[in-house]
Design goal:
The protein has two helices and eight strands; from the N terminus they run E-E-E-H-E-E-E-E-E-H. By secondary structure, the chain is mainly β. The chain has a single domain, classed as Beta Barrel (Elongation Factor Tu (Ef-tu), domain 3), CATH 2.40.30. It has a six-stranded antiparallel beta barrel with strand order 1-2-7-6-3-8. It has a two-stranded antiparallel ribbon with strand order 4-5.
């Protein structure tokens, strides 16, 4: 029996834009703008983006790495946030600052992607299903500063 590997085809729904004026936004492709209907009812979104700078064979073959933290251990890439992984998809939770329909732009507070990075999907952040109260992490991640939470 032949071993068939399925291929995926992701559509680029927009691009991260970081012009020099410090405004950060997602420029949505015209054919996908309708998909933003009611997005203004949410304060945060989950952005899935393609890590184009790591979309090359050596990076896609990488299966392990050591997180850049003191005392971190060699770990499989599925146990890290390394951009060097078999499928280079980045995930960021961002705050919506403003939506500009006339320009097809979602103005956001920050994103750890470069200018012109392809966006492959956007989902609303929903605290009821996207938050884990008692999550466990390795000791080298315990001191990470939380974003979007208040204590």
């Amino acid at each position: 029996m032949m071993d068939v590997k399925p291929e995926l085809c992701a559509k680029i729904v927009g691009r991260v834009r970081k012009p020099e004026d410090d405004t950060i936004f997602i420029q949505i492709e015209e054919q996908f703008w309708e998909a933003t209907l009611n997005m203004d009812k949410f304060s945060h979104i989950i952005v899935l983006w393609w890590i184009t700078e790591r979309d090359r064979t050596p990076d896609r073959m990488n299966l392990t790495g050591t997180p850049p933290k003191p005392d971190a251990e060699l770990s499989g890439v599925f146990a890290t946030r390394s951009p060097r992984r078999p499928t280079p998809i980045g995930v960021s939770i961002v705050a919506i600052k403003e939506i500009l329909p006339e320009k097809r732009r979602i103005i956001i507070d920050q994103i750890d992607a470069f200018d012109n990075t392809p966006v492959v999907d956007i989902k609303p952040y929903m605290p009821s299903s996207d938050r884990v109260d008692d999550a466990k992490v390795p000791s080298w991640f315990e001191d990470n500063e939380p974003r979007y939470t208040t204590f």
